[in-house]
Amino acid sequence: MTALPTVFGDGVIDVHVASGVARITLGAQTGATAAGGADAKPVPSALLVVPVLQLPNLARVLVEVTKQIEARAKEAMAAQQKPAETPAGGDQVAGAFRFNG
């Protein structure tokens, strides 16, 4: 199986819709500041191309993943209030999970 390319984006710079396709430009903060001390602007890191008819499905999955992350964060905060326990499935990185929507 061919390895998929990995891209990083911590924001959306632009969305362009034409001919039934949404082109979503993802951006990444570089951490560098512009001359004069102004805040750094994100630089394009990837272009996500999605058929417009599939945007609702993509949005649904992203919303579901966000809900799961929020639930896990609440669980982690509650667990910090309790004494430490050994997690089941010790080979998994703490806080990591997979969503198969």
Please report the distance between the alpha carbons of the first and last residues: 21 Å
Annotation field: number of helices: 1
**Structure classification:** alpha+beta
Kindly report the spatial arrangement of strands forming the biggest sheet.
1-2-3
Give a short account of the largest sheet.
3 strands, antiparallel
Helix and strand element order = EEEH
Low-confidence stretches: none
The chain-level mean pLDDT equals 83
What share of the residues lie within helices?
25-40%
From the spread of the alpha carbons, the general shape counts as extended
Note down, in words, how this protein is organized.
The chain is an alpha+beta fold. It contains 1 helix and 3 strands; from the N terminus they run βββα. β1 (11-18) and β2 (21-28) form a beta hairpin. The relative contact order is 0.13. The model has no long low-confidence stretch (mean pLDDT 83).
Q: What is this structure, in a nutshell?
A:
The chain is of the alpha+beta class and about 100 residues long. It has one helix at about 55-80, and strands at about 10-20, 20-30, 45-50.
Fill in the keyword field for this structure.
extended; single chain; about 100 residues; about 25% strand; 3-stranded antiparallel beta sheet; alpha+beta
Give the helices and strands, then pairings:
Blueprint: E1 11-18, E2 21-28, E3 43-51, H1 55-81
